[in-house]
Amino acid sequence: MTIVVGQALDTGDRGALALGGLLARSLATDVVVCGVLQHRWTGPTPAHAAAQREAATSFLTAARALLPAGVPATDDVRLARSVPAALHDAATEHAATTLVLGSSEDGVRGRIAVGSVADRVLHSSPVPVAIAPRGFSADGSGRLLTRVTVAVDSGPSSTEVLAMGAQMAHRAGVPLRMVTFAIRRKTMFPPEMGFDIEDSVLDAWREQAEAGQRRAVAELSGRPDAAQLAPVDESAVVSGPSWEHAVADLDWQAGDVLLMGSSSESALTKVFLGSTATKLLRAATVPVIVLPRNRNPAVR
């Protein structure tokens, strides 16, 4: 099992490395730190390419030294026209369980900002993609996972997403939390319809969400690999006037990760972010792992 960290060669942010190291140390696996040298249609001369590769290798070697002690790590420098395609190739060739990326430097510190490379990777990755908030550091948790939170809805894929989170929590030996989010607009219905109807709709939605969570837990316990899956220690149904408010309504701690599925419109076994997943991703203040659709947790 391997975690591939896509480390940008033109940034000082080490959030991806910190997250990759945290996951690798918690899950007892190794890390490949991948840097991509992008060239245009003409391509560099052989001498220029060799100089670029040497500089990139030195950069990655220095960056790799920041990983937690005891985590096996190697470098992988690639020359390619497309950075997302090169990262996909690296993940495939190294049989990666997760591809880890950092946030754009244009984003707010402590929040996830999806840059152009991460956006393209998130819409086509064959493996789970983990995104670190800008400036992320794992020092506060001792560079270890402390809890896995899984975002589920009432759809049929919830059990699959929950199983992936349960597998991760079991391997890391940490609690598993299940949560369903909903956004409540300021006015859901015209005032003349009365406010009681809005409360009734919210109550009905909460009951439906809780029923979906119970169904997912029951299906999880009936799986043939249930012994390798952590039980759900906590569940929550939260709502708010915005994604930011809903996410902030939960307690978060150092070492938390949020795991969620991708759009049901995605191609089979590929990540694709729909509008809901994108909004949740950008509201998160902890690292987020996005799963490809229809991924069997027993595969890796």
Spell out the key features of this protein.
single chain, 300 residues, alpha/beta, Rossmann fold, 2 domains, ten-stranded mixed β-sheet, globular, disordered C terminus
Structure summarized in a few sentences:
This is Nucleotide-binding universal stress protein, UspA family. Helices cover 35% and strands 20% of the residues. With 300 residues, the protein is α/β, with parallel strands linked by helices.
Per the CATH scheme, the topology name of the largest domain is: Rossmann fold
- The CATH class of the largest domain turns out to be Alpha Beta
CATH architecture descriptor of the largest domain: 3-Layer(aba) Sandwich
> Reading side by side through the largest sheet, how are the strands ordered?
3-2-1-4-5-10-9-6-7-8
Give the number of DSSP strands.
10
The number of distinct helices, counting runs of at least 4 residues, comes to 8
Strand residue percentage: 15-25%
Percentage of residues assigned to helices = 25-40%
